[in-house]
Amino acid sequence: MKRELLQRVDILALDLLIFWILAGLILAAAWAVVNGNDIVHSVVWLSTVFLLTAGLFILAEAEFLAVIQVLVYVGAISVLLLFGTLMTRDVEYASLTNNKKIPSILICSLMLGVFIFVIVTTKFEVQDVSLVYEGYLNAIPYLAELLLTEFVVVFEVVSVLLLAAMIGGLMLVREK
Q1: Which of 13, 21, 57, 126 is placed for a possible disulfide with 65 were both Cys, Cβ 3.0 to 4.6 Å?
Q2: Is residue 29 part of a domain?
Q3: What is the Cα–Cα distance from 20 to 14, expressed in whole angstroms?
Q4: What is the mean pLDDT of the chain?
């Protein structure tokens, strides 16, 4: 019993260490996104933030969300931003500094204050899932069943919308 408890404490300590490493790397990469002088480098750092966030999902045992994070954000959004940046003329003009830093710092500070207030005043109820489920809980088959039965119309509408967005993007960048 004590040995099992010690192993569990060691695993929790390792999880906590990995969490803090990932969180620190995410903050450093996000800082590089905001303070980058080149927009292309900022997009690359943003992709790094997305990948590290997928690592947090894996740490939280939400593998499906991690895969979606990599496919949608790293695979689609980051590539779209890179192509949009590279296809735009006058990229040097877009990288110039502007006079909106003070208002943006004030707005971000206000939002941070609201987030901290909400987090501090909210009573979170945390349940230990390991007590409810004996083995590993695999939610992917359940999600797949929901997508193909109850939410099939929404799934198809989103796929048509993404197809229309891809066709529109191709029409914008094609040679005239």
Answers
A1: 57
A2: yes
A3: 10
A4: 79
